[in-house]
Protein: Ferritin-like domain-containing protein
Organism: Nostoc minutum NIES-26
Amino acid sequence: MVNTISRSDIVSNLYTIVAEQRSSLVDLIWEQHYFHEKRRWSAVEMIGAINLEAVSEFDKANLWNAGRAELTTKPGADRLARLADAECRRWQERNPVLASIMQACSTWSRYWNEEESFHETTLNRLSTLLSLEPVSDETVIEFRKIFPDDDMLRTLVLLAISEITATVNYSWCASVAQDPGLKKLFKQIAADESQHMTYFISFAKALVDSKEYSPKGAFAVAHLFVREGGELYGSNRQQVEQRDSHVNWWDSIKYEMVLPDNIERKQSLIFSALRQITGIQVNSAAEVEQTWLDLVGC
């Protein structure tokens, strides 16, 4: 029998669907592949549609910074695949449904990795064609450091918020790009990042729905970003932590990338993500903090 579960249902009710045996892992993996293949695009064709002579200095700065930032995505995807598979083995006997969801997440990371590789290589190739400052081998190696492992729910929420930030930033880059081909590229990348955000929210919600993960993990990470001077403010915040373990792309903006904070828009999307993941509605950074404190018993 052909599986007829809608993709929107899989996104919003993943744990229930697997628990009720309405979808097998093979079914979920096919949906992942089908949607990935349907949304694929050609980096060669995208680059060919851009008039390099029409790219402004302003857009060049956005391109260069974005390509450099995308170097950090591969280690995030590599970590997710490894961590989700380890969690799958940990839950296999105690909660087989959760184990299946973890394996679906680990499997999907290959599509996330490939789609992000299109962003990275396309943007950096454009920088080369425009004779912008080369990204050194040392920088590539530094930016490829694998993030340290963390609780799985916290990891997924952090990745969802990272994709929210990327979606808003690329959407803005598209709105100001002067060349039609470049505008199309930025719009495509923004659409990809939005879909990645949706997947991370779906997997995070499934973890909370399993009752094995407390919503406090989601709010702890959100608070880290939305608090005054938090990670959401990127390299503009007063104190940027020095880390030897990994590189956060939002800490590494260079060349006066005139990117507006759009803090309210990003916060609004984070509040929406928290509601989808946990069922708890918040409308301000202060409410995020208070909810987090309530959940941890303070």
